[in-house]
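=== Structure Prediction Worksheet ===
Name of assembly: unnamed complex
Input type: mixed (protein and possibly other molecules)
Chain count: two
Listed entries:
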Amino acid sequence: MLRRITLYGLLLFAWLFAVSTASALSPESAKAIAVGDNDDRIKALSAALVTPDDNLSNLVEALLADTAKVAGDQVLIVTDGKAVIAATGAEAPLPAVVEDVVNNNRMRQALEGAKAAFGLFSDSVRVRNNAITELRESADESKLPLIDRALAKETDASLKAKLEQLRAAMLIASSDKQKRLDAIVALTASAQPSVKSLLQERMKAGVETDPEVRAALTTAIKTVEDRLAWGERLGVVFTGLSLGSILFLVALGLAITYGLMGVINMAHGELLMIGAYATYLVQNVFRKFMPGAFDYYIIAAIPLSFLAAALVGAILERTVIRWLYGRPLETLLATWGISLMLIQLVRTFFGAQNVPVENPSWLSGGVQVLPNLTLPFNRIAIIFFAFFVLAGVSLLISKTRLGLFVRGVTQNRSMAACMGVNTAKIDTYAFALGAGIAGLAGCALSQVGNVGPDLGQGYIVDSFMVVVLGGVGQLAGTVYAGLGLGVLNKFLEGWTGAVLAKIIVLVFIVVFIQRRPQGIFALKGRSAEA
Amino acid sequence: MPQITRRGALKTLTVALVSASLSSLVAAQSKDPIKVGVLHSLSGTMAISETVLKDVALMAIDEINAKGGVMGRKLEPVVVDPASNWPLFAEKARQLISNDKVAVTFGCWTSVSRKSVLPVFEELNSLLFYPVQYEGEELSKNVFYTGAAPNQQAIPAVEYLMSKDGGSAKRWVLLGTDYVYPRTTNKILRSFLKSKGVAEADIMEEYTPFGHSDYQTIIANIKKFSSEGKKTAVISTINGDSNVPFYKELGNQGLKATDVPVVAFSVGEEELRGVDTKPLVGHLAAWNYFMSLKNPANTEFTKKWADYAKKKGIAGHKDKPLTNDPMEATYIGIYMWKQAVEKAKSTDTDKVIAAMAGQTFKAPGGFTSTMDTKNHHLHKPVFIGEIKADGQFNVVWKTPGPVRANPWSPFIPGNDVKKDVPDGKTKI
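=== Predicted Assembly ===
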């Protein structure tokens, strides 16, 4: 079987450069590729690859994109209601009844391998690079001649190195000892996670018997492991940073309403939720009226989620909270009641189900930093966003007139009033600001988690935890506490699992607050009301 | 000519009135509606999954009423909201049975809620239809299980992944939410995998709390685990809305189904509603029904649901109607109960239980589902589907026909002596 595949491979590269004008893909083989038992389909695919042509390439693409359909004996490629016969490329009327082609993972892998084989000889460096990456996943000896041929043609140095590694992975089972040793050296240079398992397979008892090669294998595994360990360490730091940025972003609004103003705002979580739902609505508006600009909906959603939450915050402050200043217990109960009402309100309007918020395409996927470390774009964006919001808030509080008034009123209300500050108005502004920041956090959360009526419930405890740990009344404390808890949580999670990590973090906070009730940062100086 | 006296007239009138009201009373008694309980969380964490089961139950009841009801009597649904609060489930169940006098209850999703109501149904000798796949290890006389037992979902899924078409997986990650269903299922799977010669070092087990939303570390661990040996597959028993962040992270970190396939037991069309499924193409789910199944019964079922959702303005479904496996199981359960009542000519619990044995129903899944004559579970077909770019599932494997349920998994020691028929004793 293996030999036969190798033979096909040989024939493949012989033919790939032969100018073939005649259509090689027959309707029968197109059908054999599209329907039937997976073993037979893969066989038909490799058989067709012996005489590759554009029609086959199109069929492979269509099968991967789920646009290939079967009608009777014909395999059609259907796009936008137009049908093309796969075998000839000629247009055909679209029959009333077409059957979908079902590809499972195994079939898809074979198809992707075929697609990569086409891509290996493309003019574009990017297509070639993708093809090599793809082949790395489905590398077996049958592709060796293909790679040799591609290697001979390749001009780009980095791609050449990748091809060499690919070749090495195939040669590691060679019967020639020198070839094996060369392969190990080539593989050592690669930091692919798959290389490790490949080398470890060779180390298993009875696979590799030559002591010299075994020694080379041992050092190679060590080198590769060391390199992989770096990726893992960096991964933990990044995940911690990401969780930390989310924590301090959700707590930042509370740091203002609770930390500065002293309102125990149990409805803070629901303000997050309102921000997230505002994002959802903006997304829907863009999808309906501006589908071309859909990728940029998030930019419009940021100010709108701020405004929506700030407006709700202002209404809350004017109608409920202002009558309860200085009565923490009543505030707690009233805001808790409001949170329940807001949840039910959203549930009535949007339903109990979570609503779908799609990432814009530029926030989907990730950047591969190291072979075993991919950083998702949405998380990177949130880290930047969190620091951006932080910078904005601290500038607002420390540099603007509004910030001055807020600080004045929170430190000494009666004195500020004596100086002619309209404290009632400042209270509303400050609360609306805190609520608006919660809305921004909600907008960010919609990109990583669920958007549903209960969204806020999961964050309210975390928010209070961060604010209390950081020191009430301190923005800087909130930042350090958020980031610290994030990184700590992720380090523990790597060791103990998510459930235990959460418990250990909570125990840590209890102990910490007992030792240092004022939090990481204590409010310095003589506060008039303290 | 007899004189019409006032008294005589009054007498006649009274007699006429009494007899009329009596006859109407007699008629009313046979025409009285039959009360039916619907016990699903409409708020709290499980609302995401259970709300729609309440709606589909109401749809089936509407349908039955439109066709004349059961034995000429209309069905009257009594909907209560146990609010994802497990003790409240028991309270509401007692209220349904004792106060509302319901003949039967359709409800529960999580195993912990079922365990909570079980003593109530047994004590008051009432009937519960439970529509969700679960871990087995239970067999009550008062419950009919219309969801899958482990051998109708979990075991076939793992066998598929071991097969050549499934990718010949050799290493396994068992990932779940931290409660009874995932823990029991993973216990069964672990012992099943060992029986297939999988070494201890090739199994990784991980749990996350309910509502967990940060799956970065878990995905990184899966990546690491899969780089340490041969083909790895992930078996996910994550429940509820944690699935959305899990799949988002999976897509963003670029873990493709062709490298590490993830097969889920609690993820269906509804759970994927909030997820961009394009990066998830090829990941799998095992169920006894998929919305994408093509057969006349399913076409009818999905159309009915779409019409009903539009008519009632059900949030989400009125624009994008979706059906899933527990909805189908609810639907089957209601119709089977109707058939059993008609067979027994009574709504009496014991008579209906006896009449349930061997009931059949042409299910939307495309097969005729049969209620086992002994063990209160349905014979169901098993489907394994791969996620498509549009959030639906491609069926890539199915059993040739319905499979008999095996509530006592042979992979848990001590189960071989347990009887496959309710013995009247609760085993919790």
